[in-house]
Amino acid sequence: MSTLEIKDLHVSIDTEQGTKEILKGVSLTIRTGETHAIMGPNGSGKSTLASTIAGHPRYNVTSGTITLDGEDVLAMSVDERARAGMFLAMQYPVEVPGVSMTNFLRTAKTAIDGEAPKLRTWTKDVKAAMAQLRIDADFTQRNVNEGFSGGEKKRVEILQLELFKPKFAILDETDSGLDVDALKVVSEGVNRAHAEGNMGTLLITHYTRILRYIKPDFVHVFVDGQVVEEGGPELADRLEEEGYDRYATGAGAATIAAADAAAQA
Amino acid sequence: MTDITTEKARIGAPSAQPFINGFTEEGESLSPLNAAESKSPLAGEAVKRHSHGGGVGVPDSSRAGRLTSYKLADFKPLTGMEEDWRFTPLKRLRGLHTEVLNGAAPSVSVTAPDNVIVETVGRDDRRIGSAAIPEDRVSANAWENFTEATVITVPAEVQADGEVSVLLTGQGTAASAQHVVIVAEKFSKSVVVLDHQGTAVVSENIEILVEDGAQLTVISLQEWNDDAVHASSQQAKLGRDAKFKHIVVSLGGDLVRVTPSARFTAPGAEAELFGLYFADAGQHLEQRLFVDHAVANCKSNVLYKGALQGRNAHTVWVGDVLIRKEAEGTDTYEANRNLVLTDGARADSVPNLEIETGLIAGAGHASATGRFDDQHLFYLMARGIPEEVARRLVVRGFLNEIIQKIKVPAIEERLTAAVERELAATNH
Ligand SMILES: Nc1ncnc2c1ncn2[C@@H]1O[C@H](COP(=O)(O)OP(=O)(O)OP(=O)(O)O)[C@@H](O)[C@H]1O
Ligand SMILES: [Mg+2]
Q: In chain B, what residues touch A54 (CB-CB under 8 Å)?
């Protein structure tokens, strides 16, 4: 049982116009076995949160903490975070020239486990996981993400999720750019990883579509770098109907609650 | 790869452009040493040029129209404006284009299987000029100045057991001339390794004759010391059904400029031209190749890959492939890929495909220069891979594609180790 705890996180980036604050005090606790959905409009800072957890150097944490079972995640380098059990499925997976998938997967697995996987079982595992995600076998010979379609890149992210078995998976818009069939295939992958019982999931999405296949325990609505509303799966259904319009930029949770009360009166 | 810049190939030449400086309609003049040889390996007259609408960038003449001559005097002094010298820092040639090349040439030591013949011959040997003719001033300068040549002959139908290893060790910084002739006789099969080491300032002509049905691999390794300057023309002439594989590996030296060519003289032949280069701070590594599809039904495949790191690391790749009117049924592909590892390095890449007949099996080219940047690093590190391992993974994987083509285990191992050393230098 592990806990990933984010407390009052403030994050800014350096732009040509100066420093820009993107996350304005985010708090979130995820435990093994839980699935949290973070939903929010474009530009609200969802990817910033994901990248900050993973340790992308562009994002500066100005205050707040991230801990994994009490360990200071912010003090860890990017690779240390991954080895500690964090996994970020990226919104835009990067193409890496010159490195074959086979080589990449084996090197990463070795780094994460601290020892090389047994060759025979590993090859078998990779093959099986690829087949389940409907990824062609010849992808292992191709360079990491190079020339993959958007949907193929997302599947390959989930392939890694299944093979690396992290403690916490952060899925940044894994659903975007997928057709319905691919969405199902990818969701099944996430659910399989989840079913092993050792993983907590932070599912970032703009749309509710993926929540039909991956059931969240908690839903957090993210607007302008803050969580403005939290609830159970029913909140997602509401967002599906009403969209984000009622969360005017800058509106805090309290304002929303008041507006809701007024609407119901 | 993110951040890819794909240079648009210049296919053909804009027909309104004048010929390059120094071109004369008479073109070539045959070596006085070789009066008996009535036909040069180049198909003489300028071939009608052809534009496929690609014509962008600096005007270029058809490769077919380039001046070739055994006489230094036929080549004008270099200004650096010439199409084929425009990337080369002439100042760093250390006199290869201006001096009499009478310094001590790199010593030659050949280790060969018993069934291969190795000779040292004078300038009047009949095999001199059998496969090559200088195409630039530096090459002609060496031709005019070399005193003796090494001739390696793989006799007809001989399968050389083990590779022929030619160790060329630089003898210092006096500008010098070198000449090597490799003859793979009919139906022979062999691998020749030219291993350049030490310190030298040398212009070198390597003539390669691949006779009918012969299979020859030539591997030219440039692992010079940091101060070496090396210009090497490596021209191959291919007979019917010949199979030729040429691999250039340039790692060491201040300035290394290799100009390999493969000329088809009869149908059914195949040429593979591969290259690997790794330029560090301040190094200039240049490769300009030419594949001359002068006859029908030949195949060529070109792949050069380069890595660059450090300030003012500069690499140049120019790939001229000419499919002449006669060369129906040609199948050709050329590609160059560069990986820039740090700021301040520059890779120039120019594929030139000239097609004078529509009746070909295939013709293609590709050129891409990618950067190993923070995004790549982040992605690999986000999967638990430490930074150093990530960097090595990328470069090793990238260059390994060429190393694997060498198929001489001892050399593959040596180059893998050499690439690791180059990588280790990144940190310093
Ligand atoms: N490198 C950057 N330079 C300038 N602005 C940036 C940069 N990265 C993020 N931002 C800005 O920070 C804000 C949050 O961006 P982020 O990508 O985190 O949003 P998001 O919620 O993931 O959006 P989307 O739904 O489009 O993926 C946006 O206003 C964005 O323009
Ligand atoms: Mg995003």
A: 378, 382
Contacts of A164 in chain B (CB under 8 A): 383-384
Closest atom of ligand 1 to CA, residue A222? 21
Q: Does the ipTM surpass 0.85?
A: yes
Phi-psi region of A28 (alpha: psi -120 to 50; beta: other; left: phi over 0): beta
Structure tokens of A70?
Answer: 């009490």
CA–CA dist A150, A178 (Å, integer): 8
**Closest listed residue to residue B78, CA positions, set B20, B144, B24, B27:** B20
Q: pLDDT of B123-181, one tens digit each?
A: 999 999 999 999 999 999 999 999 999 999 999 999 999 999 999 999 999 999 999 99
What is the average pLDDT score of chain A?
A: 92
- What is the mean predicted confidence (pLDDT) over B56-75? 76
In a mutational test of the B interface, the residue from A13, A58, A90, A96 whose CB has the highest number of chain B CBs within 10 Å is A96
* Residue B311 burial (C-beta neighbours within 10 Å; 0-12, 13-18, 19+): exposed
What are the pLDDT digits (tens) for B102-139?
Answer: 999 999 999 999 999 999 999 999 999 999 999 999 99
Predicted local distance difference test score (pLDDT) of residue A63:
97
pLDDT of B371 reads: 81
